[in-house]
Each structure stands twice: as structure tokens, then as C-alpha cells.
């Protein structure tokens, strides 16, 4: 190999620059200067240094200013801090709402899931503006003078504001003049104040009774008097569904005039319209009111009434079976409030 440097062959390499062959005579490193890669690296380092300097990372600890009060006592302040910390921990672990009705249900097993009566859950939903509205309406209708009226009103109102309530099947009984209609008016006002008047539907067996309550007959509302006893026509079904849109509660007055078969028809029509055939009344919350010492069913009399003892003894025909089902539906009414005081 000769000593002529011009004959030295340098292999190709990729350094990100637009050149394939490095000319040694033009190499800045040989001439004592920084190359392009080194310059780029220095620029990045200078940018990072400026950034850290601007954020104060290069300041020493002695340059920072700490204001220590002259009266600072490490031992005394440490004890005060411990006391404050313990007070915060005690407040955090203190049982919530210890003065509420939940205290009636003490948890005997702290490390297990606590099982409460449903009233404890309902108490938590009856707070704030809703509870104030219930109390206001109860006071307006003077329910403090009649505990049965107050109980009936609050059962339905509290049920209406519960997040996941079970189906309500309720009967409000009592002689004429005991205030069943007053409870209804209080409920209508409650829903109206909440802008939810559409949630309650008022029906009755006769036109006169429905007119007194500003409601409708259940025959019209549910299509009971349709000529066909079988399936709904498409037009009738659409009309019934539109009437029940948004309805959660049905208040049926003068329940003594219903026969067992009428009860079955109402439940069957609601189940069909709401598409919940496996639930009584299609899952609708039903509130029945009336006095069984008054008028019996117009057709059949006491023999077909809800309290008849002959229903279901020998159900042979389809009509007898429907009547038997209707009486069993009535026996599912488990929430009962009897009004005794004459108002």
C-alpha cells in the first residue's frame, strides 16, 4: 500500500446526511471543529439547559427562602399536628346519620354485609325538596288530624319517588265521608307540583263516579267494552297504549262494583297493552278505593263480587276460570289502609 492518502477508500455509511462517501480532507473533526451531528447534539443540550434553568432546577437549596416563625417549637407543633390528624380520622370514621332512623337497625356484624329493613332504605330517599313537598301537602290537607289519611298519602308519595320500588297493589277502604277522595286530591296535587301529572290515571266503574273524580271509566280507558272478547284490534291496542304512555299509577274508585271477572279483564288488558303478561296488571301500580258495604257489581250482585265465597269452587267454563283468576288477583292486594275517621 502506497503512502498516498488520495488512494485510501472509505466505506459508505449512513449518518443522516446527504452524502454517501466521507471526504477525509474535509472532515471537521480532523480540523478540530464540531461536525453536524455534534452541533445538533449541543443545540439540544442547550435547549434542555435553558428549559431547566427557567424552571429553577439549577438553584441550590440555600437559594430558596423558607419563612420559619420565630415561635416555632418542633415538639409542641408536632403534638398539635397529631391531635388534628386524630380528630380528622375520628370524624372520618364516625358513623353517618347516627341520629336518623338507621340507628334503629344496628349492625351486629361489623365485618359482614348489613341487611336492613326496606324502611331504612326508603328513609334515605325521602329527603330534601321531595320530603318538604310531601310534608307541605300533608299539612295543606290537614292530614295531621287523620293518621290514616296521612299514612295512605305518604305510602304512595314515597313509593313514587323511590328509585327502584316494587309493584304497589294497594286498597284504601272506609265508609263514605272518611276522606278517600281527599287522599286522591292530595296525590294529584303532589304529582302536579312535580310536573308529573301524567303518572297517575283515575278511573271508575261508572260515568258518574268518574265525573266526580275528573277521571274516566275503566271500560273506555282499557277498552273493556270492545265487541271482540279476544285479541285487540290494532287500532284499539294503539289507542290504549297511547292512553297509558307515561302512566305509573292507576287509581280505581268504587272497587266494590267490580266483579271478579272485571278484575281479571282489567289485569289482562293491562298486561297485554304493557307487554308484561307474566305480571299482574302488567306491572302497573294499582290503587283501589271504595267501601264494600255499598253497591255490589251491577250484573251478578254479591255472587260475583270480589268477596264472594262461591267463586272458584267449581270452575268449569272459561268464564268461571277468569272469575277465579280475578279473585286471586284481588287477594294479592297486600297494602291496605282503612280510613275510620269521619271527615
Describe the structure.
- The chain is an alpha/beta fold.
- The protein has a domain at 167-339: 3-Layer(aba) Sandwich (Rossmann fold).
- It has helices spanning 36-55, 74-93, 118-125, 128-140, 147-161, 180-193, 207-212, 218-222, 234-243, 260-274, 318-330, and strands at 169-174, 200-204, 216-217, 249-252, 285-290, 335-339.
- Strands 3-2-4-5-1-6 form a six-stranded parallel sheet.
- Strand 2 (200-204), helix 7 (207-212) and strand 3 (216-217) form a beta-alpha-beta unit.
- Helix 4 packs antiparallel against helix 6, helix 5 packs parallel to helix 6 and helix 10 (260-274) crosses helix 11 (318-330).
- The chain starts with 35 loop residues before the first helix and ends with a strand.
List keywords for this structure.
six-stranded parallel sheet, Rossmann fold, elongated, 343 residues, alpha/beta
Radius of gyration: 41 Å
**CATH H-level superfamily title of the domain at 167-339:** P-loop containing nucleotide triphosphate hydrolases
Low-confidence stretches: 13-22, 98-104, 230-235
CATH third-level topology of the domain at 167-339: Rossmann fold
**Broad shape:** elongated
Main sheet record: 6 strands, parallel
Which percent band covers the strand fraction? Answer: 5-15%
Q: Distance N terminus to C terminus?
A: 129 Å
Instruction: Please report the total strand number as a whole number.
Output: 6
The helix/strand class is: alpha/beta
Oligomeric organization of the protein chains:
single chain
Name the average pLDDT.
78
Strand order of the largest sheet: 3-2-4-5-1-6
CATH architectural grouping of the domain at 167-339: 3-Layer(aba) Sandwich
Amino acid at each position: 500500500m502506497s503512502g498516498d492518502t488520495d488512494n485510501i477508500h472509505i466505506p459508505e455509511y449512513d449518518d443522516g446526511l446527504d452524502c454517501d462517501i466521507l471526504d477525509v480532507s474535509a472532515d471537521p473533526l480532523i480540523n478540530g471543529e464540531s461536525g453536524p451531528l455534534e452541533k445538533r447534539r449541543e443545540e439540544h443540550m442547550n435547549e434542555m439547559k435553558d428549559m431547566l434553568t427557567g424552571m429553577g432546577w439549577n438553584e441550590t437549596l440555600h437559594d430558596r427562602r423558607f419563612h420559619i416563625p420565630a415561635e416555632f417549637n418542633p415538639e409542641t407543633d408536632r403534638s398539635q399536628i397529631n391531635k388534628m390528624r386524630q380528630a380528622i380520622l375520628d370524624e372520618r370514621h364516625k358513623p353517618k346519620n347516627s341520629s336518623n332512623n338507621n340507628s334503629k337497625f344496628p349492625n351486629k356484624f361489623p365485618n359482614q354485609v348489613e341487611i336492613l329493613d326496606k324502611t331504612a332504605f326508603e328513609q334515605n330517599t325521602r329527603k330534601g325538596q321531595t320530603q318538604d313537598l310531601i310534608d307541605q301537602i300533608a299539612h295543606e290537607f290537614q292530614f295531621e288530624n287523620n293518621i290514616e289519611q296521612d299514612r295512605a298519602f305518604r305510602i304512595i308519595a314515597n313509593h313514587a319517588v323511590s328509585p327502584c320500588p316494587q309493584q304497589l297493589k294497594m286498597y284504601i277502604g272506609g265508609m263514605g265521608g272518611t276522606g278517600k277522595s281527599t287522599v286522591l286530591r292530595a296525590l294529584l296535587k303532589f304529582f302536579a307540583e312535580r310536573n308529573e301529572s301524567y303518572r297517575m290515571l283515575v278511573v271508575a266503574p261508572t260515568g258518574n263516579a268518574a265525573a266526580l273524580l275528573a277521571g274516566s271509566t275503566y271500560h273506555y280507558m282499557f277498552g273493556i267494552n270492545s265487541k271482540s272478547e279476544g285479541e285487540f284490534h290494532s287500532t284499539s291496542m294503539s289507542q290504549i297504549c297511547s292512553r297509558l304512555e307515561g302512566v305509573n299509577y292507576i287509581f280505581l274508585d268504587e272497587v266494590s262494583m267490580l266483579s271478579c271477572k272485571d278484575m281479571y279483564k282489567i289485569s289482562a288488558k293491562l298486561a297485554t297493552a304493557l307487554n308484561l303478561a307474566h305480571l299482574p296488571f302488567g306491572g302497573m301500580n294499582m290503587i283501589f278505593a271504595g267501601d264494600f258495604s255499598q253497591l255490589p257489581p251491577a250484573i251478578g250482585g254479591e255472587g260475583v263480587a270480589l268477596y264472594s265465597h262461591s267463586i272458584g269452587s267449581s270452575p268449569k267454563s272459561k268464564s268461571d276460570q277468569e272469575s277465579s283468576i280475578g279473585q286471586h288477583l284481588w287477594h294479592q292486594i297486600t297494602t291496605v289502609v282503612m280510613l275510620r275517621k269521619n271527615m
